[in-house]
Specification:
The protein is α+β, with helices and mostly antiparallel strands. It is built from three helices and seven strands, in the order E-H-E-E-E-E-E-E-H-H. The relative contact order is 0.25.
Length: 132
């Protein structure tokens, strides 16, 4: 089972703007990090799960990691956002590991339930209140 990572979709106004940013890249999208993960070998076949509004909203498959030449590393991603079943996740700095068993399931094509159709901000507030 692959190991995944989570990261805040910093600067994205919504999952739609995150998707647009990812899809605007040809071949691969990149985001940088200060440190190379110690468990990088376990991340083969893993994904970066994006946090928006204190919820995991989608994932981008990880292609690999590459040194930037400036003391940082690129996280190389497939330029797509695969929607996942929304799952609460606290905000954090940098990135964190996510075990495969704890990762939310992908949403297939038109699959959605009432919770997935709900705006992220509303879902976040209801989660904070313990109602979902």
């Amino acid at each position: 089972m692959p190991l995944h990572m989570t990261k805040i979709a910093f600067g994205a106004e919504s999952p739609a703007t995150l998707r647009a940013w990812l899809e605007s890249h040809d071949g691969e999208a990149r985001t940088s990090t200060r440190y190379l993960p110690k468990r990088v070998e376990e991340m083969a076949g893993g994904s970066l799960f994006w946090i928006h509004g204190h919820m995991l909203v989608g994932r981008s498959p990880i292609i690999g990691f590459e040194e930037t030449g400036q003391g940082r590393y690129w996280i190389r991603l497939e330029p797509k956002l695969i929607p996942v079943r929304a799952k609460p996740k606290r905000a954090h700095q940098g990135w964190r590991y996510l075990e495969d068993a704890d990762a939310p399931a992908d949403l297939d094509g038109g699959e959605a339930d009432d919770l997935d159709a709900m705006p992220v901000a509303l879902m976040s507030e209801l989660t904070k209140l313990g109602l979902v």
